[in-house]
Specification:
The chain is an alpha+beta fold. It has an eight-stranded parallel β-barrel. The protein has an eight-stranded antiparallel sheet with strand order 28-29-30-35-32-33-34-31. The longest helix has 19 residues. The chain is elongated and about 110 Å long.
Length: about 725
């Protein structure tokens, strides 16, 4: 009998070096040695099954095709199999405790194809959310999950999870050299398993286990693993809603947004967070009653730290597990759409946290972020900044925007921290930032990203909107990309918020010296499509609630806030109000408790809620108040310079609609016989008065109408009563 080669096991073609590399998780290509391979005129099967003492190879249908030899007691088996072609096989493994079936993942071919490689390299793949991450798949008649992850600089990537004892030796992935993607199909894996990626960096170091960047579900914090989950199974009933928004110009529609932190809007009696279904049962009817057109959620993609409010996300594709499974969010959106409420998500593509299970140094290199901390580290938030110059990073982010719109039918994205993306020197001192190729401080790569994202988002998802939180004077934020703009639908008007709240915090006697705080915004009100935000940022970190910001004693604080809301709802621009401010919550907002709903037992707070409800209703019903929100033709000053009395008056107009006059008195002085100019003679109805008793006011007013008359000089005006600290809406009656 011929002497056997000591480097090769009998009839297996598997060298000791291969065995050692597999057991030590060092093999560069396990697919080249494990699974079914041709050996001469026949075929051999090789597998690694820890804990097994004997293994029989079978077809997928269960027919025995060969008994495998144990080449290493750690679980390496190999032997000839009687099959006629390369095909998937399974193994019947045995030990003293019994037997079990293992379908061989290394006997399956790749799932991703050359077109995936091509579009991924080009950065134009718009279906990455269906190809990357973990997805249920039936491959060659076998059910399982396909996993794919981008880690171009890794030596090895393994899927580890509760289905393989978190053992990185058992499911090493196939490397696609052209793209740096790794993939594997794992038969038998079902929905509900926790998993991560075990990655060996380019220098051979084993990195901390990484969550899946494309995971569509995550474990509940403090656990950080990704979860296998099925595709969203939702019977959508929102065709009418989506059809409406796909056919209209949102700039000319009423948009009144209720900004919500889902974890603290309301809670269960025991203090636990509500599920999506519980939120749907409570929040959606509340918004319908209150007249809001949209709910905007602070970020709901998975995040590890509650006090970050979701702005430091580690799972952009996974609705946070705090409120249940992803399907729950789909049901929420469907329920909102059925009653005409849109859903907007706060979206964070500017930066990501440095938690070790997240994107930072994902494959042992600065993959998603810049390596240079002057470009890749954010000093304000201690976070990493996305590298917008990498096509793969852009594709990751753009696909995420498309994912939320397609799979969950969200109506729009409010993009957080846009200013921090646009400027290379944002919050940096001289010498702490890297200029662009022209020596400037503009982040040209971020500009291209935002333009591409908006173009793709609007181009593929009719009816959606994007809103930029942008606090500088960057031009054309809400102008089309083909006109040199960033392509957003709307921009937050941070100047309006800052100037007007500063004015409202002053005692009435001093306001005449700061009259321009309320008028300056109209100089630029139509340069962008603006949303007027009274957001969460204004009621945290020691800033107090909106009612607490108002000047004067308690009565004046309520009157000031009512007048201010009336002023804002009559002002050109879409509206946004953070939760709790509609009923004048006194306490500053905190993410770890519910709003103070008990305040609605008190008339002044209930009155404020009624006012916001009626302002929304009036704003929605009266086209003059919204139809030209973003166009100068819809606004005309009546009184812009009565600083001594702190009175403001203007007209809101829309073609073919009755004109509405907005008049505000920002002093506690009750004024009778006050004359305001009006465009036409006749009766003008008082359609809303923030001083009405039903809202908690003093009940002063004009008996339901005023009369405009023409004087001998041809000027038209009306003599009216101005309630103290109040806003009136007057509508032309004919």
């Amino acid at each position: 009998m011929a002497k056997k080669d000591p480097l090769e096991k009998p009839s297996t073609g598997l060298a000791d070096a291969d065995i050692g590399a597999i057991l030590g998780s060092r093999h560069p290509d396990p697919f080249a040695v494990l699974g079914v391979h041709q050996a001469g005129d026949g075929f051999v099967a090789r597998c690694f099954i820890p804990h097994a003492t004997a293994v029989t190879a079978e077809t997928i249908a269960g027919k025995a095709v060969g008994e495998l030899d144990c080449l290493d007691p750690a679980g390496i088996f190999a032997g000839a199999v009687s099959v006629r072609k390369l095909q998937p096989v399974r193994y019947r493994a045995r030990n003293e405790g019994g037997e079990w079936i293992v379908v061989d993942p290394y006997s399956f071919g790749p799932v991703l194809g050359p077109m995936d490689d091509y579009y991924i390299r080009e950065g134009s793949h718009l279906r990455l959310f269906e190809r990357m991450g973990a997805h249920p798949l039936t491959l060659e008649g076998v059910d399982g999950f396909h996993f794919a992850v981008w880690a171009p600089n890794a030596q090895r990537v393994s899927v580890v999870g509760d289905f393989n004892e978190w053992d990185g030796r058992r499911h090493v992935m196939r490397r696609r050299a052209d793209t740096g993607l790794w993939e594997i199909f794992l038969p038998g894996v079902v929905a509900g398993h926790a998993y991560k990626y075990e990655i060996v960096g380019k220098n051979g170091e084993v990195l901390p286990l990484k969550a899946d960047p494309f995971a569509r579900r995550s474990e509940l914090r403090p656990r950080t693993a990704s979860m296998t989950t099925g595709e969203i199974d939702q019977v959508w009933e929102d065709e009418a809603h989506r059809d409406h928004w796909s056919k209209i110009d949102p700039r000319r529609q009423p948009i009144s947004i209720y900004e919500v932190h889902a974890a603290s809007w309301q809670r269960r009696d025991n203090g636990e967070m509500l599920s999506w279904d519980e939120l749907a049962d409570r929040l959606i009817p509340y918004c319908v009653e209150m007249g809001f057109t949209h709910i905007e959620f602070l970020p709901i993609s998975e995040y590890p730290f509650d006090p970050s409010w979701g702005y430091q996300t580690t799972g952009l594709y996974a609705p946070t597990a705090r409120f249940g499974e992803p399907e729950g969010f789909a049901r929420f959106v469907n329920g909102a759409h059925k009653v005409g409420i849109g859903v907007i998500l706060d979206w964070v593509p500017a930066h990501f946290p440095t938690d070790e299970h997240g994107l930072r140094w994902f494959d042992g290199t600065a993959l998603y972020e810049h390596e240079d901390p002057r470009q890749g580290f954010h000093p304000d938030w201690n976070t990493a900044i996305y590298n917008f110059g990498r096509q793969e990073v852009l594709a990751f982010l753009i696909n995420n925007a498309l994912y939320w719109a397609e799979k969950f039918h969200v109506d729009g994205l409010r993009v957080d921290a846009v200013a921090s993306m646009l400027y290379l020197d944002y919050s940096r001192k001289h010498g702490e930032w890297v200029p662009n190729e022209y020596g400037g401080n503009e982040n040209l790569e971020a500009v291209r990203f935002l333009q591409t994202m908006n173009a793709r988002f609007y181009g593929t998802r009719p009816g959606v909107i994007t809103i930029a939180e942008e606090s500088t004077s960057w031009p054309k934020v809400s102008h089309p990309v083909h006109e040199g703009g960033l392509g957003f639908g709307f921009k937050w008007n941070m100047g309006f918020m800052h100037d007007t709240l500063q004015y409202m915090s002053r005692e009435a006697v001093h306001r005449k010296f700061h009259h321009n705080d309320m008028t300056f915004g109209l100089l630029y009100a139509f340069t962008e499509n603006f949303v007027l935000p009274l957001s969460h940022d204004e009621v945290v970190h020691g800033k107090g609630s909106l009612i607490a910001k108002m000047a004067g004693d308690d009565w004046q604080k309520f009157a000031n806030l009512r007048a201010y809301y009336g002023f804002m709802w009559g002002y050109p621009g879409k509206k946004l109000l953070f939760m709790g401010q509609e009923f004048a919550q006194w306490r500053e907002w905190s993410e770890d408790r519910a709003l103070d709903w008990n305040l609605l037992e008190y008339p002044m707070h209930e009155g404020m809620r009624r006012l916001v409800r009626d302002l929304n209703g009036t704003y929605r019903r009266k086209v003059a108040l919204h139809g030209r929100d973003c166009e100068g033709e819809g606004f005309e000053w009546l009184l812009a310079d009565d600083r001594d009395n702190s009175v403001f008056a203007w007209l809101r107009k829309a073609p073919g609609e009755k004109t509405i006059a907005v008049v505000t008195n920002f002093t506690p002085v009750y004024r009778e016989g006050y004359r305001i100019p009006l465009p036409v003679e006749g009766r003008w109805k008082e359609i809303l008065n923030t001083d009405a008793e039903i809202y908690g006011g003093s009940g002063k007013g004009n008996g339901g109408a005023v009369q405009a008359q023409r004087d001998k000089n041809g000027s038209v005006s009306a003599v009216i009563t101005l309630p103290p600290l109040a806003t009136l809406l007057l509508e032309q009656d004919a």
